From TrEMBL:
GO BP: dopamine catabolic process; norepinephrine biosynthetic process; octopamine biosynthetic process
GO molecular function, one term: copper ion binding
Protein name: Copper type II ascorbate-dependent monooxygenase C-terminal domain-containing protein
One Pfam short name: Cu2_monooxygen
Superkingdom field: Eukaryota
Domain spans labelled Copper type II ascorbate-dependent monooxygenase N-terminal: 26-150
Organism: Mesorhabditis spiculigera
Annotated Copper type II ascorbate-dependent monooxygenase C-terminal domain residues: 171-322
Record's keyword annotation contains Disulfide bond: yes
Claim: Ubl conjugation is one of the keywords in the record: no
GO cellular component, one term: secretory granule membrane
Length: 375
């Protein structure tokens, strides 16, 4: 599920259409046979047009293309740029990263996230997403298909129409991914009405932000089925000073627009998800699958900076100490197995929640190539 907040929304389409030296092309799947399964991630990689590969451009607009009749199956799109060394056109399922060609793992630089039902993505007049630089000559679209009834579908060629310009705007834009890491360490017990988890973008990483702050023009919240509320809080000098996108009825239809004029100057961003697992009998772990959970905010902003992802999870050492206090037998090896050994009642749930609120954090601060910026 997604929630979209558009901030400092770009000018009308006419202003974009009048811009000279534009290149438009489709980034879509090619007659994909959508499997009859609940969740499918399909990845399609293609080279950018020669004009973009030969000269630096900025992406200024993304328009959704949905194959008629398949609207109910297309859940969302993610777009990434790829380091082109070894890259060739590719199209196939990509849930299991271990089965993918090695070079596909270099498609890590987030360009955009688009949830089904959202409008086109327009860059502000003063900014655009850079394309065709630093060896990034290919684009990948990750299509999330949702087919819970496992119905047969017609061939699908959904995706996005990309518009870029060689008339460079003042600022390079980018996407910052914040929230929790998809790790079993961040898990929710069953039969909970409102269990919160927090993902921190902490000072160890925000120290890489420009001192004048970043200007946010879109924020896209993403979580899965158990999330009932999600928001990102802005902290400065240890005090909460505001929120960047909040949805207390997550999963409801419709879009929300707002305005946030001042730049975001922050020493901590905290993305919170509140989970309802009353219908579940087992732990819900963080992960990419539809039955797992995520708690992510894709923040579209400018000017571009080195940080591409700023997320957190509790440290492994503190989690193992928690399991020892709960007398989890040593025969349980994986984190998921250890959680499964606990009898989840009012007392154990309260202790887990207190642990999550106070535990030391492992901060993941990554650049566009997935390299850690902090030790």
């Amino acid at each position: 599920m997604w929630r979209l907040l558009l901030i400092l929304y770009a000018a009308a389409a006419g202003a974009q259409d009048s811009e000279a030296k534009e290149v438009s092309f489709n980034l879509t799947g090619l007659n994909v046979s959508v499997p009859r399964q609940t969740t499918t991630l399909w990845c399609h990689v293609q080279p950018m047009p020669e004009a973009i590969r030969m000269k630096r451009h900025q992406l200024v607009r993304l328009d959704p293309i949905i194959t008629p009749g398949n609207e109910e199956f297309v859940h969302h799109f993610m777009i990434f740029s790829c380091l082109s060394e070894g890259a060739v056109p590719f199209s196939g399922e990509c849930q299991d990263h271990s089965t993918l060609p090695e070079w596909v793992h270099r498609c890590r630089n987030s360009i955009a996230a688009w949830p089904a039902g959202a409008p086109p993505i327009l860059m502000p007049d003063e900014a655009g997403l850079p394309l065709g630089e630093n060896g990034h000559q290919h684009l990948m679209i990750e299509i999330h298909y949702h087919n819970p009834s496992q119905l047969p579908t017609q061939p699908d060629s959904s995706g996005m129409r990309v518009t870029a310009t060689s008339r460079l705007r003042r600022y390079d834009a980018a996407v910052l991914q914040t929230g929790t890491m998809w790790s079993d360490a961040m898990s929710v017990p069953p039969k909970q009405e409102a269990f919160p988890l927090h993902g921190h973008c902490a000072p160890e990483c925000t120290s890489f932000f420009p001192p004048e702050g970043i200007r946010v023009f879109a924020s896209m919240l993403h979580a899965h089925k158990t999330t009932q509320a999600i928001w990102t809080s802005i902290f400065r000098d240890g005090q909460k000073i505001g929120e960047l996108n909040r949805d207390d009825n997550f999963g409801a239809q419709g879009q929300h627009r707002d305005a946030l004029e001042p730049p975001v100057v922050s020493d901590r961003l905290v993305t919170t998800c509140v989970h309802n697992t009353m219908k579940r009998v087992n732990m819900t772990h963080s992960g990419l699958g539809g039955h797992e959970e995520m708690c992510i905010n894709y923040i579209h902003y400018y000017p571009r900076m080195e940080v591409a992802a700023c997320q957190s999870q509790v440290t492994n050492a503190s989690l193992q100490a928690f399991f020892e206090r709960e007398n989890v037998p040593r025969s349980a090896k994986s984190v998921a197995e250890q959680f499964a050994k606990i009898d989840w009642n009012g007392s154990t749930v309260a202790r887990l929640q207190e642990y999550y609120e106070t535990a030391p954090l492992r901060i993941h601060c990554l650049d566009e190539l997935g390299k850690e910026l902090i030790e």
